[in-house]
Amino acid sequence: MTRVTPAEWSEHRAMWVGYPSHPEVWEQNLDPARAEVAALGRALAGPGGERVRLFVRGDEAEADARARLRDVASVEFVRGQFGDVWLRDTGPIFVQDGEEARPAAVGFRFNGWGGKYVLEDDDSVAEQLAAASGSPLVRVEAVVEGGALDHDGAGTILTTRQCLLNPNRENGWTEAEAEAVLAEALGARRVFWLGDGLVNDHTDGHVDNLARFVAPGVVACPVGWGADDPNAAVYDETARLLKTMRNERGAPLTVSRIASPGRVEVDGAVVPASHMNFVIANKAVVAPLYGDERAGQLALDALASLFPEREVIGLPSLALLSGGGSFHCITPQEPA
């Protein structure tokens, strides 16, 4: 059986979005985070050309989401049970099987990012999203989060050793063992390994904060912004590694550098803010912004040059970031 994980820029039949539903988790940031997620949903359903499936938990959260998005026809409200909004990691990776490209949902084991945040019902999200989408669930007994992997649609996966080989995931995994699992589960034919991710990233270096395929053979990664960017050296090392990589024909990757947000702090601590956490929708690219207008505009301009056929939209994501992630972290896509 041939299995393919489509690139994110391929056509989608739907985009899932996790909606902040737990006051005890978000506390004072609940309302601002909901406003940011509603703005994201509006952008995806409007200029993004997506059918948005908004995943909500409980009567209060559903009523709040409906009030904010009542005028957006292409938003579907789906009730479910989950610990928090990070559906890219807790949900399945949607793939296509066989010559007929039948949809399937690959559900890896989820352990709360190495045991850091184990929340009730997060380990059942893959099953719920698969059922709601009508896709058969393919269970894989290995700990892998969707945000740890990026796909070019032709069998190449980009990931980091810091996360995928971390002892708090599959203890003792070698690169070869991880590659074998990715080959069987997701149709991977080649894995490009990067090193460390962003400072203070509780995901242990998810690649969707660090480097992303944006076209066949083209990868975007940040360049430091400001003299005190805490990740400047990590970005430069990532770019250096990417430039040594070759595709199956021996051609080097094209590496595009995009301005980072620079140093971003929440409550005095550096947080893993990244313009790489953008979402590629059917007709738009929606990128998170963190308050530095100049850095944000440079990032949006760079993305516009990489996605000339899509509208590029920048939206605030500081409240969402207070929970540990941004737009890409809450939006797994269903390929068409």
**Percent of residues in beta strands:** 25-35%
Q: Taking all residues together, what is the mean pLDDT? A: 97
Q: In percent, how helical is the residue content? A: 25-40%
Please trace the helix and strand order, writing H or E for each element: EEHHEHEHEEHHEEEHHEEEHEEEEEHEHE
State the distance separating the first and last CA atoms.
19 Å
The biggest beta sheet reads: 4 strands, mixed
The structural class is alpha/beta
Shape: globular
Please list the strands of the largest sheet in the order they lie side by side. Answer: 1-5-6-7
Number of helices: 11
Please describe what this structure looks like.
Helix content is 28%, strand content 26%. By secondary structure, the chain is α/β, with parallel strands linked by helices. The strands form 6 sheets. The protein has a 4-stranded mixed sheet with strand order 1-5-6-7, sandwiched between helices. The chain is globular and about 55 Å long. The two termini are 19 Å apart.
